[in-house]
Amino acid sequence: MTLLEARGLRKTFGGIVAVDDVSFEVDRREIVGVIGPNGAGKSTTFKLLAGFHRPDEGIVRFDGEEVTDLGPEKRAQRGMVRTFQIAQELTGMRVMENMLLAAQNHPGEKVLAAAANTSSVRDYESDARDRAEELLKFLELWDLREEYAGNLSGGQRKLLELGRALMAEPDLLLLDEPMAGVNPDLTDRLLQRIMELRDERDMTFLVVEHDIEAIMRISDTVIGMHDGKVLSKGTPEEVQSDERMLEAYLGGDV
Fold it and tell me: Any idea where the ABC transporter domain is (predicted)?
């Protein structure tokens, strides 16, 4: 059942230990939330998992295979896709164009196929447009499909970021602060969509988020970090009642 596994991850920057012997698993069809105060090591751990940093020690396995030395592009090709805290949409392109650009393995990228305008290219483009339409309706962005991405609100950009990631048809989505800068109404919509993707499409999520209330609402498992280490792990109820996490947030002895 394990889809993602981290074992003994350690990362230092100069003399600063950012991540220290971090280990945990993410099972298939699970939402795992990662919380912790500023400086806890959440963002560095996220980047180690996504391939944007290479660990000094430890390994990362995805779907049973070690991917520690693979970059983010190779991990994405294997089904591990991340979003960014600051949405990375192309602001000068329309919403639909942003979605279509995120589709993977376009046969038209091969020169001969593109020149011949083969049926495979046409079929792919038709399928990609159908999938983009389905996702935009699912995310309630369909009415904005012809709007320039730069004109969207912060929350709408986060939904578009999620849609672009889903165009890659990932097995695992790594979400970096998906609720940051999102108003309460759009936060509720985003949370609902994440839970529906898990329940109805068997997707798996790892979510790094400062909004503890949101994490507790959607997560099956919560990982609490402090000083680069995993301090607490369990159900939302178990982690919320862990006095060590309360002390970490409030600044007491842990």
Answer: 4-252
Task: Give the integer Cα–Cα distance in Å for 207 and 30.
Answer: 11
CB 92 within 8 A of CB 99: no
> Could you count the other beta carbons within 10 Å of the beta carbon of residue 20?
16
- What is residue 215's three-state secondary structure? helix
Residue 214 CA: distances (Å) to CA of 69, 86, 176: 33, 18, 13
**Cβ distance 152 to 59 under 8 Å?**
no
CA-CA distance, 144 to 151, in Å (whole number)? 10
The structure tokens listed for 152 are 């969207």
What single string gives the DSSP state of each residue in 19-59? EEEEEEEEETT-EEEEE-STTSSHHHHHHHHHTSS--SEEE
Q: Which residue is associated with the tokens 């507790």?
A: 216
Nearest to 163 by CA among 147, 141, 185, 196: 141
d(CA 76, CA 90): 19
Residue by residue, pLDDT tens for the chain (254 residues) are 899 999 999 999 998 999 999 999 999 999 999 999 989 999 999 999 999 999 999 999 999 999 999 999 999 999 999 988 766 788 899 999 999 998 866 555 555 555 556 666 777 788 999 999 999 999 999 999 999 999 998 889 989 999 999 998 999 999 998 888 788 888 888 899 999 999 998 999 999 998 899 999 999 999 999 999 999 999 999 999 999 998 888 765 55
